[in-house]
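On to my pick:
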Amino acid sequence: MLASTLLAPGSSQAADPDQTKKLRNAVTTEAVMKRLSTLESIAKANGGTRASGTPGYKASVDYVTKTLRKAGYKPKVQAFSFPFYRQLAPSTLAQVSPTATTYVENTDYALMTYSASGEVSGTIQAVDLALDDLEGSTSGCEAADFTGFTAGNIALIRRGTCAFGEKVANAQKAGAKAVIVMNTGTPGNTELLQGTLGEPLATVPAIGTTFALGQALATGTPTVSIKTSTQSDIRTTWNVTAMTRKGTSSNVVMAGAHLDGVVEGAGINDNGSGSAALLEIAVKMAKTPVRNKVRFAWWGAEELGLLGSEHYVANLAKKSPASLKKIALYLNFDMIGSPNYGLFVYDGNNSRFTEDDGAATAPKGSAAIERTFHSYFASRGVASEETAFDGRSDYGPFIDQGIPAGGLFTGAEGVKTAAQAKKWGGTAGVAYDKCYHQACDNLGNVSRRAIGLNSDAMAHAILTYALSTKSVNGKSTRKGMEWEPAPGIGTSGSRTSGGYAGHGHHGVER
């Protein structure tokens, strides 16, 4: 029998992991890795990518829906149009004068998603950079910032306050040939800025840089040359959702992962990992007699600005607001197998990351979700840390509606510290995922240990809330629920991830 030992809101303890043990044993590392292998094969058969708007993504959707139907679900496929984007060739950025310097793409600078194509050269002109006061940058957010701007120059803007697309649009109106957006320069915001304009509004090249390069370009009036080659058009992509048959539909638990990757590669860690683990959990929970229905979701076009989850939530808000209100919470799983992983839980109480750090306000109940994950890892003898609750993955549209959210993340381009290497293993001074958004994000770019640890934590949280969301929204459940795997599914499996002894992101940024 499954003990219903879930807690009252505000409790510091977590649900008893024993009540989810059978499910966790059924969701094996081997099974998740096999699904990842299938996703890699799909990419290989479709030009090496599973990005939304490509045949590889359509094949990924077909694989997920076929698997769900076989398990007894009735999946829904939601089509929507979106602005597709890809870079057709490497870009270049070089200082022509006063000192000839060639900069390295994806090290010193990165092309912004939805940048236009172009080959231009011009004089750098700083736009309200305020480098003597790094907090609260509004550089490029108002037309008045461009008073005195010389048409034909290249605008140098600093990140902050408004969306990148707004900064670029204002620069274009002022006659800029190209736009360079430097990082903010505040603690934690000095690295390479990899951003998106949100839509194909640019008519000029747009790139992001490190704070250091921005500082260098702001000194004097250097002349630079920029060359970009990109493609943008409107295409169709899809979200996939599937609901458990049992449970009440008045208090729905949602769990999601984005199914798409970037065009550069197969997207196996980002985010085949979250998608594969979620699919395996859904299969094993197909016949589970839960009290709250679970709606599993695989999102399209996340890499281009959370477009799939944004579309889903906006559609519910417009056409079925009552259904939106019945979502008790949302759990997000984006990159759970980084090779140099950390075990990160979204900071649902804003205790580690505040609004000054770019964090969003966490809806009430999110803190309880954070505790559930931390307490589960602790029960397994594994340490975990927080990652910023900044809305930069698919939980963003849900928290905008006041829906409590939480989830897991194993790190992207951030660098592992010495303390974290001591805690989880791996290599200090190296990115959590050195293949983040690159062609090398394949099956060899995944930690089996991280997959095992996180798929267990996912299964624990999903089933915990499928039984009761009392700790999140005060709604309880009846005791005495019994979990059963789907017919033909075993309840044990080996754990090649090594047991439990040790283990942004995306969106329109400002």
In short: The chain has 13 helices and 16 strands. The chain has a mean pLDDT of 91. The longest strand covers residues 230-243. The first helix runs from residue 21 to 26.
